[in-house]
Amino acid sequence: MATGIIYIMLGVIALLSLLRLKQGGADEASLLKFLEDVPWGKVIIALILAGMLAYITWRIYEAITDPYAYGRNGKGVMIRLITAFSAVSDALIAWPASESLLGISTASKGGEPVAQRQMFDRVLDTSGGVWLVALIGGITSITAIVQFIYVFKEAYEERIDFQKLETVKRKVIHSLSYAGHIARGTILGIMGFFMLKAAFARNAQHMVNTDKAFDFIGDEISPVVFALIAVGTICYGFFMLAMGYYYDFRKGK
């Protein structure tokens, strides 16, 4: 549910940016920086951080204990590894949330990935830094592909007992899932591509965050596609809220 709240807000901010009602900020770290100055903002950030840490813990536990009975064969182990790796995206939200609570966040409210680029610049200057950045870019790109596979195979049905849901609710969740995962996969794919470009060009300035991935879509593809991806991001948020409410923790048992 914490993940859902984040992505609903990101999609709304992206739409506001498209309508020129807000100057950027459709990025996880920028959003958390923005919340620092909102009444009860620290409380909201603390709840989001708690949710992220809880979900990361669950994903790792899920990969180890295998509650959905994927098994220990090659395919089962691969699915469980992907499950564990999916916690990386949640960690990328938990980290700036913890920085915001500690008052040490260097994120820009406008969405500029200045701090991230500076960090990756330092990494690229170290021995093996290029391969580390390339590895992160590769994992991000693979995660993007997994988003598409996950939704087209409707694998999320394993985690929701659809038989207990009314027909209308099933259709709504399916629609939210397709729109949301396609949007999220697109954003992650763009981020992964530019991270790989930054690695092989040895230039962290090529790296983009969620906000700049949106900008790339609007500038290089189409404002219409930008709007669709923003709405899809909101759908992803509502899908995650539905998942949090209907999650079946014992299905494999």
Quick check: average pLDDT? 87
Structural class: mainly alpha
The SSE string, one letter per element, is HHHHHHHHHH
Biggest pleated sheet = none
Domain tally = 2
**Shape assignment:** globular
Low-confidence stretches: none
Percent strand equals under 5%
Primary descriptors:
73% helix, 0% strand, mainly alpha, 2 domains, 253 residues
Would you mind describing this structure in some detail?
- The protein has 253 residues and is mainly α.
- It folds into 2 domains: 28-106; 113-253, no CATH class.
- It has 10 helices and no strands.
- It has helices at 2-18, 28-35, 41-65, 74-85, 87-102, 114-124, 129-152, 167-201, 210-221, 223-246.
- Helix 2 packs parallel to helix 5, helix 8 packs across helix 10 and helix 9 (210-221) runs antiparallel to helix 10 (223-246).
- It is globular.
- The model has no long low-confidence stretch (mean pLDDT 87).
